[in-house]
Amino acid sequence: VSGDHTAIDVAAQHFEGLGRKVRRLAVSHAFHSEHMDAMLEAFGQVAQGCTYHPAQIPIVSNVTGQVATEEELMSPSYWVRHVREAVRFYEGIRTLDTLGVDGFLECGPGGVLCAMGALCLEDRDTLLVPSLRKGQSERDAILRALGQLYVAGFDFDWHAIVGPVTSHTLDLPTYPFQRSRHWVDEVDSQSARVGGIDASLGGAFW
Hints:
With 206 residues, the protein is mainly alpha-helical. Helix content is 37%, strand content 8%.
């Protein structure tokens, strides 16, 4: 929600009364509100002086919530609208979901958008990974994010990530791994003696 301080305070109190978590963003201006109107003309002049190129990958617009067209992204007026109009985050996430996107990587200083994205999706199996986390080093956070994406089936150019690899890689064994199960499938009685102590086995984990 963006706008006057007094109106924002009323909205915040309303949602806090409903038990919702509310946090004021530390920003310099009330972006996407009428407070931006005074700079739109100057911003448009700057946008007119930029050189635009077609996008190399599809982009879902936060202005419309739909896949952006080439004409939109290469139009200065589109970026002026981006400053002033509401952010269609929910619609954008839903559009990506309908397009079959099942993994999201948040490129930002934290995981706020991942948490918001999860609320927009009905499929809780969708992967949402923040690239940076508060209180963690950038290196550890981005490597953790890449690891989460990799084990989920996403592929990477690891040579581009870690640099030249001088050591030799080894093939996995060609024989099947030996496995032994140590789980109790059935228990005849509700208790058993373990180390001389009667212990209930109902629902216990060993």
